[in-house]
Automatic annotation (TrEMBL):
Gene3D superfamilies: Beta Polymerase, domain 2 (3.30.460.10), Nucleotidyltransferase (1.10.287.860). This is GTP pyrophosphokinase family protein. InterPro entries: GTP_Pyrophosphokinase, NT_sf, RelA_SpoT. It comes from Gallibacter intestinalis. CDD domains: NT_Rel-Spo_like (cd05399).
Length: 212
């Protein structure tokens, strides 16, 4: 008897986690379908690859504490990136292409957007973040679930993952002033490379087998 509330909580936890997994499946399938269609029509894949994750319980609690949300006050529902998809594109023009194609779908609702490409973060971080609501059809109801989609180029992703690893390894200690400055410098250089690679891509037309 005394375990009943705990068992119910565990069941509720599994149900909620299942919802986030389902939402990730739906949005990632939509993105794969769009990428495949783009390849059929233009012989080109805007998406390089994707990474999906459901935020761990520990990271969710860390974030609730960091943001100062009240636990009593359904803090979970304020965390918009429990379901997360990272879409890594080749060029920055692909980022906005993917964004527009996804948001055009009428079962997808945009609830938040942060363009850290037009307005990079102080750290030098660049990426486009959107949060969408997607309907998940269950046996007895439909739930609208938030999914955060981070869209960035391969170069932006390289910077973000290396910088994240450097910070993570410091066990909560901030990076040195020098490292912060150098990372900003790297981000600026990488942005120039991104722009140059995109210009090269746009100027060099693909050559068909028949045209050779
Ligand atoms: P993890 O481990 O990546 O999941 P908000 O909900 O918008 O009020 P939030 O979510 O803190 O507040 O806003 P933000 O900054 O728009 O998005 C946070 C996420 O963006 C981070 O997730 C990182 O994935 C990424 N990010 C933001 N800034 C940086 C940065 O300077 N460097 C790197 N490497 N990544 C960054 P989490 O939740 O921190 O963690």
């Amino acid at each position: 008897e005394e375990f009943k509330p705990m068992a119910m909580q565990a069941q509720r936890f599994l149900e909620v986690r299942n919802l986030y997994h389902a939402a990730i499946k739906e949005v990632s399938t939509k993105l794969e379908i769009l990428d495949d269609e783009f390849h059929v029509n233009h012989d080109y894949n805007p998406i390089h690859h994707m990474e999906c994750r459901v935020k761990s319980i520990k990271s969710i609690f860390d974030k609730i504490i960091r943001k100062g949300y009240d636990m009593e006050d359904d803090a979970f529902t304020k965390i918009m990136d429990i379901a997360g998809i990272r879409v890594i594109c080749k060029y920055s023009q692909d980022i906005y292409r993917v964004r527009d194609m996804l948001l055009k779908q009428n079962d997808i609702e945009l609830i938040k957007e942060k363009d850290y490409i037009q307005n990079p973060k102080e750290s030098g971080y660049r990426s486009l973040h959107i949060v969408v609501l997607v309907p998940v059809f269950l046996s007895d109801r439909v739930e609208k679930v938030p999914v955060e989609v981070q869209i960035r180029t391969v170069v932006m992703d390289t910077w973000a993952s290396l910088e994240h690893e450097l910070k993570y390894k410091r066990n909560g200690q901030p990076l040195s002033e020098d490292a912060i400055e150098n990372l900003k410098h790297c981000a600026a250089q990488m942005n120039l490379i991104d722009e140059m690679m995109e210009r090269i891509h746009n100027s060099e037309k693909a050559v068909d087998e028949d045209d050779k």
